[in-house]
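WARN retry 2 of 3 for item q-0093 after timeout on previous attempt; input resubmitted unchanged.
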Amino acid sequence: MSALGAILLFNSTVFILNFLPVALLGYTALQVFGLYRLSFAFLLLASIFFYGWWRLNLVPVLVGSVAVNYGLGRAILAAPPYARAIATSGIVGNLALLAVFKYANFFIANVDAVLGTSIPFLDLVLPLGISFFTFVQIAYLVDALKGKRGRHGFVEYALFVTFFPHLLAGPIVHHSAMIPQFRSRPSLPARANDIVFGLLVFLIGLAKKTIFADHLAPMADTVFASADRGDILSATAAWAGALAYTFQLYFDFSGYSDMAVGLARMFSIRFPWNFDSPYKSSSIVEFWRRWHMTLSQFLRDYLYIPLGGNRRGKARHYLNLFLTMVIGGFWHGAAWTYIIWGAWHGLLLLINHGVRERFSVSDALPSRAATWALTFVATIIGWVFFRATTIGGAIAMLKAMFIGGAATTGVPVLEIEFLSLLTLAALIALFAPNARRLTESLEAERFDPRFASVAFGSLILVIVVSKASMHESPFLYFNF
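OK item q-0093 returned
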């Protein structure tokens, strides 16, 4: 392991041509020879190596969190009279760990601003993936309290949490779905099919990231940086930046999620799909059924329903919806812009539910087109707050977009290459089948593993093309 200070990115040649083949070949060989426990330990060490490649000194945070939560899960089963107290203390402990690393300086800054104090910031580095592995383990403790904890040892549990395809940015998975898959014994032909299928899905995600997300990023970065500086933008520049980020974020995070699904499948593990063409949604309710689906499910099962869901009257139902979205926004980042983004989506959900309760919306094409347009514009408004680093920058963007701004753009002139890429990205996101739809026919078939040579050839081609035109950039959700 090496403290290189650089993330071992899915879209890097080091990961694709070095780490992945070693991890895949080592795990598969051990399983083929029947050394299953050793294969779990090997993959666990490989996943910790993957995490430690960035910062070796943060590995104890991950390993310590895993060890403590595993012990708490066992204690919940061993001491039923104290199970609720143990689970509650574990959940509080997980949230405290997250609060210290992710939110402490946010609260210090706000206390300083309100009280005029000068409390020094904590000199802490935010561990990658802490939001995700914290949520995964909170779900584990809640499931253990409900009697849903299966029988498993520490290595299996640790592998479930640290398994590198989902460790840094999801999808959010459950131990009850993951651990039994590690124990499965697929045949060699089935493993070959899984590797080829997984590679195809991985390639789709890699293309999303390197071809679309990374090439839309410069326009989004330039426009939002200009707005955060206080520059007055034209409507053209503001809309260009907002749309660039809208599609950059989608192709970046859905690309990561597809790559995670593909990587897991190479190890014969099936992850849940995390995106289902969310920009095709004709309501905000539908959007949240299609966007970051595993987070939506987590917030519903472990926050919205425990708050009371819709069981305590309409007013409480609406309050629970709103609080869930605000907390979901704050989970994404320690900044008021994320809280406002969550509150905006909470408000939109309340409006959506209110309209559905009072009016009947037609399924006719003109009606669906209108509701789609309203939903898409509302989503873009939310993304402005999500991307801006200051509230003032977000307001400046929205003012330029909807009221008008400078006569000139304030940013580089829009080029035909950018407009062509933005148009193509929009057409794909709005009309093309997603990765799940593209591969579902292959999912049901036993296709020939010899196609692996074509798939690997395509992989090398994508790497060469992307390396020639773009540097290896981190995924956006690593910031959250």
